[in-house]
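Morning!

As promised:
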Amino acid sequence: MVPGSDAEVAEAEEMAVREITLEDGRYLVYYSFEVGCGPPSLAPSLADGRAEDADV
Amino acid sequence: MSELRWHPLLEEWVVTATHRQDRTFLPPPDFCPLCPTRPGGFPTEVPADNYQFVVFENKFPSFRREPPAPAVAGDDFYRVAPAAGGCEVVLYSPEHGGTLADRPVGDIERLVRVWTDRYRVLGSRPEVDYVFIFENKGEAIGVTLHHPHGQIYAFSYLPPRIERELAAAANHHARTGKCVYCDVLARELADGCRIVAENASWVAVIPFFARYPYETYLLPRAHRDSLLDLSRSERTDFARLLKTVLVKFDGLWGFSLPYMMVMHQAPTDGIARPGTHLHVEFYPPLRTPQKLKYLAGCESGAGTFINDTLPEEKAAELRAVPCPAF
């Protein structure tokens, strides 16, 4: 691994996890990565629980 | 509705999931349900105006945490069972365009950490015996949404392909005392001619027994049961090799190569088995830029694959595709 490479930066980051419940009862989990980000902190700026017509 | 129906001729479960007929089919980019919800825009699956990675329960799942009762009554011969388990969607990026091949190595490394966490979370559920991480890419595979994403199925039983692999690994271990994947890797490294790429801790190879022309395996050099067993450097090397293979795939013919990518690792049913070895298998469905490898009569009806190509030649083609060092 090249010192200072993108991959090395990724390894040094902390992974924050935040789970919400959508209106229809399904869960959705946000994963965010940041150096020293500590506990889950990613705050969706829109109201939790909206979901429409997605499919996979 | 979804349910499991027992196939008495093959002794395996078939999943009926009729609600999936209604899922969205190739929506225009402005109405992608996997993009972030923009202020004033239509509400997507993700109620946030940005994200790095998101995992959510599929709106049209084949398996559910609380599955409905089967729609039909079964009996001892035609058995039915609730389709317990889970189906998750993994969003690789908030950006609508591009593919995993376009993501920087750091993002792929982050994705590996997300996969590892989902393996841990889903595998800890008592009803989940197998966590299956996969990606279908490209319309040739039947993808209905272009936003870069993968999927995870949490099975309440061992899927038949997995069960067969585990049985083969157990047989090999009983005969030799060794892991069959470790032995395959040793043989491929000794032969050399089917290696696609390698780094300090991972190897990509079109194996001797490949069924698809560009069927590529990624294996850790060391014996590792699951993502949870990877060291930090092995995880990073995994991301680097994944990026390398994806770039080579797209460079092969100058367009984004469709594929199925599947990850096999240890079951989560609490039973220790010899010879489970984490690995990724890619099945690109094309045999030329214009021709698909169909699973036709012999493959579907007899279960025997006919590969029109030699793995040694296809591996040489992929080795020759220019690729930066990641």
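Helices of chain A lie at 6-12.

Hope this helps with the figure draft.
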